[in-house]
Amino acid sequence: MRILYLLFAVLFLLFQAAPGSADPIFPDTVECRSQGNFCRAGPCPPTFAASGSCHGGLLKCCSK
């Protein structure tokens, strides 16, 4: 029975997605992040301004 727990743990580690790999590649998202900005669903935080869009226009690209 212990081997099943070990096997499950190994399979879990093997099939984990890398951070960000689940995000589909959108050109506007790549451009936003390459400039050091980030994407946000709501309004940008107070010290940031919306400088474009992300995820095909669904999100806002926030920059300082």
Automatic annotation (TrEMBL):
GO terms for molecular function: CCR6 chemokine receptor binding. GO terms for biological process: defense response to Gram-negative bacterium; defense response to Gram-positive bacterium; innate immune response in mucosa. GO terms for cellular component: extracellular space. It is found in: Cytoplasmic granule; Secreted. Residues 1-22 form the signal peptide. Pfam families: Defensin_beta. This is GLL10 protein. It comes from the Eukaryota. Belongs to the beta-defensin family. The keyword Signal applies. Residues 28-62 form the Beta-defensin-like domain. It comes from Chunga burmeisteri. Keywords: Antibiotic, Antimicrobial, Defensin, Disulfide bond, Secreted, Signal. Its main location: cytoplasm.
